[in-house]
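Recall the central idea of this unit: under ordinary conditions, the amino acid sequence of a chain determines the structure it adopts. In this exercise we apply that idea directly, starting from the sequence alone.
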Amino acid sequence: MALIKDDLIKTIAEEENTLLKCMMIVTATELCGSFLTGKTGPHSTRDNFLAFWKSKYMPKEYNGISELLYDILRNGVSHSFIAKGGVIPSREKKSAHKHLRYFKQGIFIYADKLGEDVTGGLVMYLEDKKNNPELNQKYNNVLKELIQDGESKYDKFITRNKIQVSIEPIIGDIYPDI
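Accordingly, the structure predicted from this sequence is:
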């Protein structure tokens, strides 16, 4: 749980670049959606994204636009390093009150408000997870699957390329915490 609480939430809250903040937000919601569905992998990303955005952890005003946000915000920043047309993400404070309003150019997203709403939902989820064995099990299963998938691909690469690995133990900063 420290990974999400200490790294993910803190990073979203502190990020000042609009693009990077949006990338972290959509990636975080996809991960947390996987904790709700219990599924991970390339064919589950849309379902996982929508599961979190439509859950009780997000304010209701996102429920009706979650599919639009997946198509134009998530797919834009995740695959093209830009928000697609139809969405205007910004951190401009003087426009904060326009968050989720529709304009000719697209829906305005005040990135700081979006970040607050998502991290608030993550905090609620983490609290629920403490007292809900099913949520806790899905969380652990998803992290285990991610670890096993990565380790399997790494082992195959090492074997295929006949790489000599160091036996020195090393610990990273963002390894899943199960």
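Residues 2-135+142-150 form one domain.
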